[in-house]
Write a structure and sequence with these properties.
19 strands, homotrimer, Arc Repressor Mutant, subunit A, Glucose Oxidase, domain 1, four-stranded antiparallel sheet, Aminopeptidase, 3 domains
Chain lengths: 445, 445, 445
């Protein structure tokens, strides 16, 4: 796998369009942290990759949490006294506050208003709201519409169910040469929001599909889980195997046209952090780096101090930093095939570094070996950065530097350094350090 | 103790005025490194806090030094041939060079001039000069006055005594829960200089008075000592107990209207350094930080390599950086009640951090605990920095981070982090690490 | 040795002119990596310092390399069909590609052109080219001249020999108090190029001459070697004694009028790195610092991972960064006596730091000693940086800081700190740590 080959590959197969089509297919489904919308979503993903579906029963203890009741909604509306549906779940599943308990009641505007949510600062948009852990009900609508509502007796109906059932999540393992895993996680709990979270689902799915066809050093585990309770559940059920996680990324908000943003793992200097930052630095694009903070997506759970996994978060514009976040404006117009494809490409570029990052030892460490007699050195001015990469790999391959460390130190793209190392290895000028020593940057507890 | 409560408290009791009144009371006294001016100063302070007075006899060896003779001065003047007192100690005790030996002699201007000190660059001001360790005599006057002196036979009189006596200093210990001490030191050797050193004496005294009424974790030791020889003496006499000093501050120049300045301890990263810098960073004011240097006040001695105590220096404008320094312009107009009160407030704010800085261990380190069910989490958008503080404390309470470390990492004020920790501790989500492990940042030799 | 004394000394003896004259003397010689030009060069240097000449036979294995055949050239030219010499080695030895095999042949322009080298971007200059490790022949000429060549039958003659012989290098050891060595290396393989490499030869020679007359702590080993194969050879032949190298500098390009540039050793924080940077920082001039990279001069070999010697590279404008580099424009006009003298001075300034850098322990570490009674302290305002240096040396002489560390921490020139340490040592206030403990910054493997 190499970045340039991939870019060509991705363009030729229209992978941006493929991700966008999946987003369009999933957009109308009413997802929440449980329920049939999640099942339908995973079913659609399952047509691309063979997902294993897990169902955890309501009431099961997962770490400090308890699996909540399952929520489903069939219909919901507000009618005025003329019997006109003025707010209708059939038009947008954002209209119902997620996890609303069933209700059927006539009430004056004053009482109704306490259950209505709007965005005064964006009067045309409908907000997304949920009340997972506190029983309540409510509707979301545009502020402009709220302003038109007069005194009337409104008929409110939410035909939902909140009762014992299951929390549903999907998992897919692509085995590699090693049992050590790269964890790729996306969240599946938001309804019709295109960037947060459908873009993450789409990228994860197409990434999984491509990697399943590649020869891989690491095994890759893909998780499709509801935020927080989903990662808590997975961590709880898989606690004994968590030490297999060698690297990890949470994927979210990867379809908007903002610049790429990487939020580092709690460790801050994990190999995945270095690999993503190297890939972004050599992407030719602007990008942003955020230090870890315990607020955001499921990296919060993966990076809790008892696990402290090397998991970062890969995004374009981060949560809460774009006005469309958690509103009806995060719609199908807000994400773009080209941006999705670019996100996938840079993600693959970083994973490619992890796949190829080895530690070598120079077998001729005293003085430079004579590269010319081995046909490796083209010399001034033809050799350029290829020659330099050969010299850097030889100089720093003392057992204490990975190829990524060398690429960073030399300010040369990883791919060029890797090519140099391959050439030197082929001449027996390098010896590879076995993997168990190579893992020194993140020792297992 | 919390910063906001203190600010209100301080304003309501007029503590700035209280410090200013003490400065006014002490201003006329003729202090030096020994003598009755020091005794009268400590006596005045003793009306606020119960000082223990120490007298060390002339000739006693203290570390590499010897207690000098005691100096007192009753009168001093220069008369012209008409018998007019043209320079008179009765007008300002700055007129006599401190530690001047007695003299009574008539002399021409030429001879007299060798004993006169002025400030040509500030022709209206009278400098402060001393000659503690080399017997000499002299007068200080304004340069403008010097310019008016003609050829004449001048009668010079210094009615002083320099003979075996004592070095006098004051000490006050406010006991806390722990034997470990916070050392607060000010110097008492300068005559009528308001900022350097009366402001330090006043702040130390009012601080001592307030802390004596508070419930304290640490014990607080307040020192009123002459510069250099005083700290040398105290260190010499208390060498066996010096390992009790856990944190320390030298207080000087805290009444002028310049911005606050903190000079770090020799260690540079002592807990007191971090606490003061955190307090200043969150004070909403501009401030300055100086690295340690072996020039300045008694931190020179406390931070000598054989002691290397974690003692910084808390100032507004530092020694030598304001033109009024060591001149008659460092007078009662140069210091302000409001600035004194602000200095005290920020000092208390830093001490409050030291008092409350604990290390906790998250008792539910795997995944986040469900804060909602414990009523701790208010959620978006109500929770704000309180919610964030809860998450940061949980995430970093792995036994390797104090609350101050967490506050710094999270860029949240210590008080908010402390409040979060208290709430989590009340829910048994945190365990406190016993103090002896918490002291890891400055191990005892 | 102290910087100011040296500057005066250097000016008074016209040392810049002395170096420049040596450059002029060596300029016409046709050097390469082997051959009589090298021997004549070393012979000329030998008139200044007693060089030991080494000859290593062709075919001898040195590390991964093999000593090549010896190359010599007597004559070379291109004649047009009228018999006119249009390119003539007698005019400039740059006209012949170094290591050209013998040839005597008539050929059309088309064939000849494949062996001609020019610089289209500098049409008046003649490039320098070599083909040491691949048998070939060629001529270098100005691009303007190439443009004038018409179709003709050209007679090409290179009267050279490439056959078994020797690689020649020079070495000179100036013994000091200690067996530990400072390695000073310059390259001798370039023909008529004044800055690269004659300035390096000249500075090294005059430096050696001066140091041979000085009382030295370290021994100094001066190497005059061809690039790459020369350092490879020396390292190969001296492998068992290489651990004696305590510090080292490669000297090159020190005669141009650009600012001084220091390229750090691979270690990056070796004592020689700190010493040169301190000297440059206090030189009052602009200068540049480069991190180590495995491209450049013989520091590539000295800093290969199997040796990892603390050897940096001391230059003015670095290799490849001036357009005249490796062209006929790097001639006698390009280097200046004044720049050579300044390079020597700054180099001596750095070596003087290494010579005088000791670690002391304060014998009175508790509190400051009373400097006044020892006549060391002049006090405010007379003492200035001398007083400060005394206090810094006392404060940081805890066995963990060399004088250079102290000078850096205090931002005071090394010479002032050294003077303070000497004064304190004379009063028994300091104890010197024996050399074997002082060497902690670069432990021997």
């Amino acid at each position: 796998m190499n970045t340039t080959e991939l870019a060509v590959l991705l363009e030729s197969v229209g992978v941006g369009d493929e991700m966008y089509r999946l987003i369009c297919e999933l957009y109308p489904l009413c997802r929440s942290i449980t329920g049939n919308g999640v099942r339908e979503t995973l079913c659609a993903v399952g047509r691309h990759v063979p997902l294993e579906i897990h169902e955890i029963p309501t009431g099961q203890q997962v770490l400090d949490w308890t699996i909540p009741k399952e929520w489903n909604v069939r219909d919901a509306y507000i009618k005025n006294s003329k019997g006109e549906k003025i707010v209708d779940f059939a038009n947008s599943n954002l209209h119902v506050v997620s996890y609303s308990v069933p209700i059927e009641k006539r009430m004056p505007l004053e009482e109704l208003k306490r259950h209505l949510h709007t965005l005064p600062e964006h009067p045309d948009w409908v907000p997304f709201r949920a009340s997972y852990y506190k029983e309540n009900w409510g509707f979301c609508l545009s502020h402009n519409q709220l302003m038109t509502l007069g005194n009337d007796a409104y008929e409110v109906c939410i035909d939902s169910s909140l009762k014992p059932g299951f929390l549903t999540y999907g998992e897919y393992l692509v085995p590699g040469e090693r049992a050590d895993e790269v964890l790729i996680s996306c969240h599946t709990c938001h309804p019709s929001l295109a960037n947060d979270n459908l873009s993450g689902i789409a990228l994860t799915t197409i990434l999984a599909k491509y990697l399943s066809q590649a020869k891989l050093r690491f095994s890759y585990r893909f998780l499709y889980i509801p935020s927080t309770i989903g990662s808590i559940s997975w961590l709880s059920l898989n606690e004994s195997q968590i030490s297999n996680v060698e690297h990890g990324l949470v994927i979210a908000c990867v379809g908007d046209s903002g610049k790429l943003t990487y939020k580092k793992s709690r460790r801050g200097d994990a190999e995945v952090d270095k690999a993503v930052l190297h890939a972004l630095k050599h992407s030719g694009q602007e990008y942003e780096v955020m230090d870890f903070s315990p607020y955001g997506y499921d990296e919060r759970q993966f990076c809790s101090p008892g696990f402290n996994l090397p998991v970062g978060c890969f995004m374009r514009t981060p949560y809460g930093r774009y006005p469309e976040y958690h509103t009806s404006a995060d719609n199908l117009d807000f994400v773009r095939p080209l941006c999705l494809a670019d996100s996938l490409l840079q993600c693959l570029s970083a994973l490619s570094i992890l796949e190829n990052n080895e530690t070598y030892v120079n077998q001729n460490p005293k003085g430079e070996p004579q590269l010319g007699k081995r046909g490796l050195y083209r010399g001034y001015p033809n050799g350029g950065s290829d020659d330099l990469a050969l010299l850097w790999v030889l100089n720093l391959s003392d057992g204490n530097h990975t190829l990524l460390d060398i690429a960073e130190r030399a300010s040369i793209a990883f791919g060029v350094v890797k090519k140099a190392a391959d050439a030197l290895f082929a001449c027996d000028l390098l010896r590879k350090i076995p993997n168990d020593r190579c893992d020194y940057t993140h020792p297992r507890a």
